Amino acid sequence: MKKLLTILSSLTITATSSVAVVACNQPKEEVVEYTPSEKKYPTSSTYQSSRTELVDEATIIDGIKKDAEHKKDSGNVSVYFLKRNAAFGGVQSLLSIANTLQDGGEVYYSLSQNIAPGDANGEDSIAYHKLTRKYASKFHFQITNNNSTYIVDEDLQGIFTAVGDKKVDLYLEDFQLFDAADRDVSIVEQLLPYMPKINTITITTDGTAQLDFERRSQVWLSSIPEDYKTYLTQVWSDLIAGKTPTIDSKYYFDLDKILPTLTLKNVKQEKFANAWAASARIYVDSLEQPYTWNQVSTGLASAFSRLTEENQKLFKEIYGIDNVTLSAGDYIIHTGNLIKDNHVTLLNVEAENVKATHEANPNKKIIYKPHPREDSQYYEQLITKIAGFVEEDVEEVKEWFSIARAQTPIEVFALTGVYRSSEDKNFEYSVTATSTTVLGLYEADAKDDIVKYVFADAAQENHLRAMYGASNDGVIDWRKSNLTASV
Fold first, then answer.
1. Contact at 8 Å (CB) between 110 and 142?
2. Which of 17, 146, 258, 466 is the most exposed, having the fewest neighbouring CB atoms within 10 Å of its CB?
């Protein structure tokens, strides 16, 4: 089945007789107009609502609602399902959890069996037990009994039994929607029996992938008739009110598509669905703040700074970087591509990039930060490859080249101040331009520390130019590209 398309930005839409036209800053894409004979969509007149009127603000095109505008009941329980080894998603979740626990909240955190102990979000990489030790009665950690990459009824039954009568603020990854759809499973339909106990649904995103989801989603939204949007809105109106609508199950997949954008609330404003991301929209659209992903803050850096000094130290301990010590000097942090995706080519690409950086900065030490999901055999091989390229012994290379803890995302090093300039140390970044690293460093207020954006090839650079725009004042300063001269 075609993957679900998720909308992760607010939209400006004007209606015509047969198609809604999306006004946005995304690359233009041809949209095929809807022809009634092509598909029979249900309409608002065919849906028998169990309520006499629609929820105020019940529209599927309202865009994302800031979490900070919604005051959660103090007795709610936050429930996280981490089903995919997405390192950036893990950072978002743990920062949110740390703030929730600090405020006296209760958290259930479920990690899928498919995430191995040594993975970026695995038990050997992140010291979850330290949260359990400090917040013994408030932080509940578990490994699911299945390898599913999306929530299944077994997961939900266990959690909702454990929380009892308490309302739940539910956090799900956007990839769960897509993986479920590939297996003809609707996440919304899975949640139906539990909707009366769900206060909010938050969709966490794993960085730059959401930009592509956003673009394709806008195309999908513009291709469906207005009355069908009204129909979906009416269904959601009942769902948010805790009712169970009677509709053909195939339409639940379209409800999944719009899940992250909904701002539907019942009259008591008890629940709504929202999206959560360190989004590029703050840079593309010049917004003052990114759409917030946590009820207490806006942005990763703000969330970390809100933690007490004790909990900031705990956060570093959880990620295993509390004892990182570096001598005085100048450093360049080089973030790597995921070599295992194409190790024959990318080992050479990474070695060439490190060589070029070293030759241009012979008096600076280079710290190589592998991708969090990298296989250790490849970054261990990289030192030997670099030695051959620069014609030095491995031990000579180690005098100016070292490798950082792979599993910890580079954003965490920057957020926590481990790789930030001080009186006796200076840090610059040479970053993989296509990764979440760029957005993460912006969130950490480290944009000015980026001295080079590294692309594997021209195709990567052209893709990002189309997505972000060609301005040097936007997301990427193209004058700092490793492939192009000043523009």
1. yes
2. 17
